[in-house]
Amino acid sequence: MTNSLIWEACGEVNIVDGRPVSPKVVSAPGLYRLKFRNGWWYIGESANIQRRLSDYSWPGQGIEPDHRIYHALIDAGGATLEIFTQGDLSTKSNRCVIEFREIATARAEGKNLLNGGSKSNSFLLEMSIKYHESEIERLRHKLNALSPEKE
Fold first, then answer.
1. What pLDDT does residue 16 have?
2. Is the Cβ–Cβ distance between 71 and 8 less than 8 Å?
3. Hey, which of 55, 112, 125, 127 has its CA 20 to 30 A from 38?
């Protein structure tokens, strides 16, 4: 399969003070592709690429996939970022069609993907465990704050 998209290289996502820092990108709808330094890949879509990438710098109480990408960036020591913003990407349905095609192409090319649908790989499971461990820690802190001090 050939990749019909022309991806724009945007630079590196680096780890600074323990957190992922993305290069500046447009605040536009499109697709983004992360090539992690350990060989893994992630392809995503967003109505606002800049805002979406900022979700990975500190996911807080975000959803599990945000945390998996956050932990994967840290574990890999960063990633190369590419974006695609050409054509009509204003609707989620258009972006998802292209994203699905790009994920299928990457899988056919044998790339190791962090995209969902295949939780059988160990790296994805490790990143999910890191997410759940951080959630447990957050909830312990919340519980301790609510519990009366033991005398």
1. 95
2. no
3. 55
36-59 burial, b if ≥16 CB within 10 A, otherwise e? Answer: bbeebbbbbbbeebeebbebbeeb
Backbone angles phi, psi at 15, to 5 degrees: -100, 115
- Which among 89, 27, 86, 75 is positioned nearest to 54, based on CA atoms? 27
Sign (positive/negative) of CA torsion 61, 124, 117, 40?
positive
Cβ-contact 44, 32 below 8 angstroms: yes
- The correct CATH number of 8-146 out of 2.30.30.20, 3.90.460.10, 2.60.40.10, 3.40.1440.10 is 3.40.1440.10
The DSSP secondary-structure symbol of 148 reads: P
Tens digit of each residue's pLDDT (9 = 90 or more) over 7-56: 999 999 999 999 999 999 999 999 999 999 999 999 999 999 999 999 88
